[in-house]
Amino acid sequence: MLRQYELVDLVKSYDPDVDEDALNRAYVFAMKKHGAQLRASGDPYYSHPVEVAGILTKFKLDCASIVAGLLHDTVEDTDTTLEEIKGLFGEQVAQIVDGVTKLAMIEQKSANKKQAENFRKLLLAMSEDIRVLLIKLADRLHNMRTLHFCAPEKRARIAKETLDIYAPLAERIGMQEVKSELEEIAFAELHKEAHDSIVARLNFLREQGNSLVPKIIAQLQKDMQENGIKATITGREKTPYSIWRKMQQKNASFEQLCDIMAFRICVDDVTTCYQALGVVHSKYHMVPRRFKDYISTPKPNGYKSIHTGVIGPENTRIEIQIRTYEMHEVAEKGVAAHWAYKQGERVVGKNFKWIRELLEILEQASNPEEFLENTKLEMYNDQVFCFTPKGDLIGLPINSTPVDFAYAVHSSVGDTCVGAKINGEIRPLRTILQNGDQVDILTSKAQHPSPEWDRFVVTGKAKAAIRRYVRAHKREQFIAMGKQTLERLFKGENLEFSEKALVNVLPNFEAESIDDIYAKVGEGLVSGWDVLKAIYPAYKQSKLEKVVNSLKPVFKKTLHKTKKEDMQINGLIPGMAVHFSGCCHPLPGDRIVGIVTTGKGVAIHTIDCKQLEKYTNEPERWLDVSWGNKANEEGVYTGRLKVMLANEPGALGEFSNVVARYEGNIANLNIVNRTISYFEILVDVEVKNLKHLTDIITALRASKVVSYVSRANQ
């Protein structure tokens, strides 16, 4: 743990005019307030804020940030108040501390909701001052470094939250070092087997390539010198987590990845970057589709560099990154690399386009959980870059469509989008955009967002806007339907129906307005008879109600499914028969569609199932459906895998063990083909959802006995 004078000296090393008195007072204040509190490791609790402050000095942050880092837990974990901090250390420090403080005192219904509320508050705070995010990342980084002292369940929860939220946030502000360390610790905790397997393979490659890496660096250095280019060349190994993610994304084995080892060429200026690129491409064969120019089109987080894949020195397939020294500093430290408070001016979070977009999603989300889901989508940044007709650059996630592009331009453009021209040609709205596409959005004032769009858009901003409109539109329909249902029921029973009577029974149905009751009746969450009985408690059953009640035992299970929270599939009429198609084996997490079939109810297919081509000319059979609230929590579903397994003793046993370790259950296995070296099998695995199956696939790819594995959709 840093001593008081050591912390002051660290800050003085980059800021000679720092307020030493404030730092010393904050150090002592944190020590006194946390007093005898201990961490899970047994260390004094105040060691945590001191280490957080130490991490912040590596970002070279200002004095107010370091003081806030020392005090960031005092309001939450001690009897300290924000007013006390404001009086002792100033309003600026108090605002930062408040932004970092969790919502510990608010009662929440679930852990997910608590996480979403905390993230919501963090977003609002960092939109006012980006230092809030920097301190929060330092706080999370130190907690991850001491994660091994926590209980197993807590470790898993914190690691997952880190991968879902904090590592992407670090990436968004370009803090590569922080992002990589957070991912590495979380990956080792959540997927230990896959992590250890990749680390073992990297160690093997490192031993094999001890002499190869220096040779490649020496040859590249020679190439630059011969062409009069002054450069610094280093080798960089990809992290185990980034290798694992690429294996997932590209459906590739470890051996198929070409950029496990990358080489970096740093030069003085941008012109020299392109000269170095010319030298590399003139001497070595370029690998197709491996060239990316992030200097002319930087990433949203400010990252600039040229990436190219070549068959380089020693006939080795490698990735080369070319950048200036300044670009390298920004690539490693992100927003902290050029941190400055010029003439008292604050760096406000709203200056960052992605924070403005997240704030817009926050306004449109119906609840904290939906906000968290959509912002997770927004934060992962595998990018494609497209242009407006005026030449403005729009960065989007990979697999984005013209609808995503329209919402990225402006919400009103997305809401009124009717078509798109891609490179001058009219194309469907579900077309996947490619790098360099010029997109011209066609709009109409008469157009509204379609529920169909939610099946193919990928950005959180688009999903939030579409769902907001659909919610409002559906509610209007449910209100009209519910009102009509009640009016008919009361009229059929010769009873007076009045909205004044409904006002008196609002508490019976946890409703805040008459429209809430109408909507619940229209959606089937409350029956008309329940409302009638609430208004006329002494009313006798009519013949019609007796008939309905006599059928309840027969349809007990069906009637039970009318509760929205119990539905596996949203968008179906309560009681409708439903089954999951055996051709594509849909799982929660897949985008799905319902097809009405004769005598069998509704068949659920994945949106990319080839069998859907049979129903192209029968749109009346298509239903707009989605997974319900309980699908991810309680269901067990079957996913089908196609596996190429080594034909050797113990291979099948090893395969089964990997599936079992990831809590999958093999329901069926069929050997399709067998050779001297391999045999191909189709395996049905019982899983919870798509992510569960994807984790099993990734773990299998890391196994030495598995040559190839993918999901079998047909």
Helical fraction? 40-55%
Helix count, DSSP H or I runs of 4 or more residues: 29
Assembly state: single chain
Low-confidence stretches: 103-110, 338-351, 374-381, 542-567
The biggest beta sheet reads: 6 strands, mixed
Describe the structure in brief.
The protein is an alpha+beta fold.
Describe the structure in your own words.
By secondary structure, this protein is of the alpha+beta class. It is 47% helix and 16% strand. The protein contains 29 helices and 21 strands. Strands 1, 2, 3, 4, 5 and 6 form a six-stranded mixed beta sheet that branches. The protein has a four-stranded mixed beta sheet with strand order 13-15-14-16, with no helix packed on it. A hairpin with a 2-residue loop joins β9 (417-422) and β10 (425-427). The radius of gyration is 29 Å and the shape is globular.
Looking at this protein, list some descriptive labels.
714 residues; alpha+beta; six-stranded mixed beta sheet; four-stranded mixed beta sheet; 29 helices; 16% strand
Summarize the SSE layout with pairings:
Blueprint: H1 4-12, H2 20-34, H3 47-58, H4 63-71, H5 74-77, H6 82-89, H7 91-100, H8 111-128, H9 131-145, H10 152-172, H11 176-190, H12 192-208, H13 212-226, E1 232-237, H14 240-249, E2 261-267, H15 270-283, E3 285-286, E4 292-293, E5 306-311, E6 317-324, H16 325-333, H17 353-364, H18 368-379, E7 383-387, E8 393-397, H19 402-409, H20 411-415, E9 417-422, E10 425-427, E11 439-443, H21 460-492, H22 499-504, H23 514-523, H24 528-535, H25 543-551, H26 556-560, E12 569-570, E13 578-580, E14 592-597, E15 601-606, E16 622-623, E17 626-627, H27 631-634, E18 637-646, H28 651-661, E19 665-674, E20 678-687, H29 690-701, E21 706-711
Parallel strand pairs: 2-6, 13-15
Antiparallel strand pairs: 1-2, 3-5, 4-5, 5-6, 7-8, 9-10, 9-11, 12-17, 14-15, 14-16, 18-20, 18-21, 19-20
